[in-house]
Design goal:
heterodimer, A: 207 residues, mainly alpha, 10 helices, B: mainly alpha, 2 domains, 8 helices, disordered N terminus
Chain lengths: 207, 180
């Protein structure tokens, strides 16, 4: 009985006599000061926002004009940029970052070959150069080169007149080729007509 | 027992007022929190939080009749809330060891520490209302009327609860001793 009572009293005395570590008051005041300053900074925000709103309402027209001008300027810049990019070949800036740089001699030679006019050959007679080129170890394919080679648009199909001219040129008939020249053809026509008239107008009285 | 009063005309707490509040009540609030938590660091955290809350809700101070009871009630509730987040068993062991006299031999000190720990454990097993009254009664500055006010009970009810708590605790401890 006595032991229990003593133990309870001892625990109660321990709870009663407990003391905080020294400097608790100062720590509390420092924390309160910090909290108060943070709170006042937060509470000032709505006031500032309100002031800005009222101030801006006084200069509403001026700000609207400035905003409109800024929007117009941005739209113009965007439009110019878009037009410029549309005109520029897509392979230069977008896919080939070093397109503006000076090409290497081998690269330049290759491009010159591509740009040179070639004799027209029948499709069946053309060698499958593209296929051999793809697997050729001499010209290893580099991604930017393939893009450059693919850049020119495929040739449009020949018109009927072009096909006719091509056929004449391939046949190599000198007369046909000569007749392609309009002056020669006109002179020839005139000679033919004069010869015909001469034949028609010959006197038949002698016969 | 002097209670701090704030004039109704002053809507804010000045730094001097706050310093006065801290000086007057920090020790009491620490003991209130410590009775629940039995950890010095946790109790100090609670006291600090009490004053921060006072600062944030300073407008409600104007309507407070008894500042002392109001502050103790805040500390009490905050301490109960903190207790849910810590391991009270571990705190009780350390606190029980701190209650034992250092001059005692090791075996006696160990036995006493276990005895104190069992008291604390049995206190925790008491019914909630009895436990609360018992813990608050450990604080010398608080009379029965104030304890009743803090726990929002009548004074007679608080007195009856305290009597029952002590009787129950003693009986349980004796039954434990008899079983040994």
């Amino acid at each position: 009985m006595k032991n229990s009572e003593e133990a309870i009293e001892k625990v109660m005395a321990g709870l009663r006599d407990s003391e905080a570590s020294p400097g608790l008051d100062l720590r509390i005041l420092a924390a309160a000061k910090h909290s108060a300053s943070a709170q006042s900074a937060t509470s000032r925000l709505p006031e500032k926002a309100l002031w800005l709103l009222t101030h801006s309402s006084q200069q509403k027209a001026w700000r609207a004009a400035v905003a409109t001008a800024a929007v117009g300027l941005i739209a113009a810049v965007l439009a110019i940029t878009a037009i410029h990019q549309h005109r520029k070949p897509s392979t230069q800036s977008k896919f080939h970052p070093d397109a503006t740089a000076v090409p290497s001699p081998a690269h330049a030679r290759e491009e010159a070959e591509l740009l040179q006019p070639r004799p027209i050959t029948p499709a069946s007679a053309r060698p499958s150069g593209r296929a051999t080129r793809l697997v050729s170890p001499i010209f290893p394919i580099r991604p930017h080169e393939t893009r450059n080679l693919n850049h020119p648009a495929p040739e449009a199909p020949l018109s009927q007149q072009e096909k006719l001219l091509q056929r004449i040129a391939q046949s190599g008939d000198p007369h046909a080729l000569t007749m392609l020249n309009p002056e020669i053809r006109a002179r020839q026509d005139a000679e033919d007509e004069a010869e015909f008239r001469k034949f028609v107008e010959q006197p038949t009285t002698g016969n | 027992m002097a209670s701090f009063s704030i004039e109704a005309e002053r809507p804010e707490i000045s730094p001097a007022d706050l310093a006065s509040l801290v000086e007057s009540y920090s020790a009491l609030l620490f003991r209130v929190a410590h009775s629940v938590l039995r950890s010095r660091a946790e109790a100090e955290d609670v006291v600090q939080e009490v004053f921060l809350r006072v600062l944030h809700h300073r407008s409600s101070l104007l309507h407070v009749r008894n500042t002392r009871v109001w502050l103790v009630r805040i500390a009490w509730n905050l301490a109960l809330d903190h207790k849910k987040r810590i391991r009270p068993d571990q705190m009780d062991e350390i606190f029980a060891q701190s209650l034992v006299a250092r001059s005692l031999p090791a075996d006696e000190a160990l036995e006493q520490a276990q005895r104190m720990n069992s008291v604390l454990r049995e206190m925790e097993r008491l019914p909630k209302a009895e436990r609360h009254v018992l813990l608050l009664s450990a604080i010398e500055e608080l009379g029965t009327a104030e304890i009743a006010d803090i726990l929002e009970r009548s004074e007679s009810a608080a007195r009856a609860l305290l009597f029952r708590a002590r009787t129950r605790l003693r009986e349980r401890l004796e039954s434990q001793g008899g079983k040994r």
